[in-house]
Write a structure and sequence with these properties.
This protein is of the alpha/beta class. It is built from 11 helices and 15 strands. Strand 11 and strand 12 form a beta hairpin. The longest helix is centred in the middle third of the chain and has 20 residues. The radius of gyration is 22 Å and the shape is globular.
């Protein structure tokens, strides 16, 4: 495997370095019979060119593991087209002062991507302890990754805590390297409250559904399979009328991607008929804000969805609705239509479309 990390902190037992730490670590590993190559330039810039990718992601590597704690690097890796990525991509990071750590491994064919996996992670937080560590206002995952990378100043912890969590993550990573899965994998480790024991949770993430968004050139909609199962269940519950709800997820303007990882049910004052669905408004804004707060501010209302009873695409009314949504609110305002056999996505970008 290939490790992408320019911030080597604890592997070198010597006085402070004035030069390149990655180069110094490579020299240390040379004594163990290893001969790693060092890339000491901007990883994000390198990933945008074929020559740079050949250096950073060589075809001979089975896996490339990002441990930079850089949001920019994760986005650059996720933006790569599948045909330009030979190694499987993974990411390992700590959060909550080392009391939490995660491993993300993308699926085969670069789907789900690392960005997909993080959105899925935010949507599926299952315990109060994990929620506290992830969404801590000072040291949670989202806070330390905004352009800061990893470092003692951004996330202080003892070397004992660092070693304990990284050792467990490395064991899970080695297991994945030896027996890789087809689907994406999320592994989360958290210490118990007021205790050093670590609880590990593994989650499988299937490939996301990827749709082009009409009327928004270059934009794509990525939908978790878990969400599609929820959607299909709602449609099956209302087989003779159109139904719908609210899309919850993230939006990345740099990647031009809207990612859906949850649904909110239609309010009780919604109207369902065989030819039309009208989303109600009773407590809708409260429901959206509650979901936003429960995700630590990571997930937002990114649009609405409704079903069609027949395999017909967007109607003139649907297109007018998408246009009105785009004019009334800032992007994203996706309108997803689910027919018996396929999906359609619309999004008007207001005056910029």
């Amino acid at each position: 495997p290939l490790w992408l990390d320019q911030n080597i902190r604890h592997a070198l037992a010597r006085s402070p370095l004035a030069g390149n730490k990655a180069q110094a670590l490579a020299e240390e590993l040379d004594y163990l019979g290893q001969n790693p190559r060092v890339h000491d330039n901007d990883l994000v810039a390198a990933l945008q060119t074929a020559k740079g990718r050949s250096i950073v992601l060589p075809k001979t590597a089975a896996f490339a593991i990002n441990t930079t704690a850089s949001l920019g690097v994760r986005e650059a890796l996720s933006a790569l087209p599948p045909e330009s990525v030979s190694p499987r991509l993974a990411e390992v990071a700590l959060f909550g002062r080392g009391h939490g750590g995660f491993m993300l491994v993308e699926g085969r064919n670069h789907n789900p991507t690392l960005c997909d996996m993080v959105s899925e992670l935010y949507a599926t937080v299952s315990t109060d302890r994990l929620r506290h560590l992830l969404f801590d206002s000072k040291l949670g995952l989202r806070e330390v990754q905004i352009g800061q990378g990893c470092g003692s100043l951004t996330m202080p912890m003892t070397d004992m805590r660092l070693s304990a969590m990284t050792a467990g993550l490395t064991e899970h990573l080695v297991e994945e390297l030896q027996q890789p899965h087809d689907h994406g994998q999320i592994v989360i480790g958290t210490t118990e409250d007021n205790h050093t024991d670590t609880i590990w949770i593994r989650q499988t993430v299937a490939a996301f559904e990827v749709l082009p968004i009409e009327s928004a050139k270059g934009w794509t909609l990525r939908i978790s399979q878990r969400v599609l199962e929820m959607l299909h269940s709602e449609v099956a519950y209302h087989p003779r009328v159109e139904t719908g709800g609210v899309l919850i997820g993230t939006c990345n303007s740099r990647l031009m991607v809207v990612t859906v990882v949850d649904l909110l049910p239609a309010p009780p004052d919604s109207i369902r008929s065989s030819t039309r669905f009208v989303l109600g408004t009773s407590r809708l804004q409260d429901m959206i804000m509650e979901r936003h707060n429960a995700s630590g501010g990571a997930l937002f209302d990114v649009g609405t969805w409704h079903s069609h009873l027949d395999d017909q695409g967007p109607s003139p009314l649907d297109r007018q609705t998408a246009l009105e949504l785009g004019a009334e609110r800032p992007p994203p305002a996706v309108l997803l239509i689910a027919t018996p056999r396929r999906y359609h996505a619309l999004m008007h970008m207001g005056a910029k479309s």
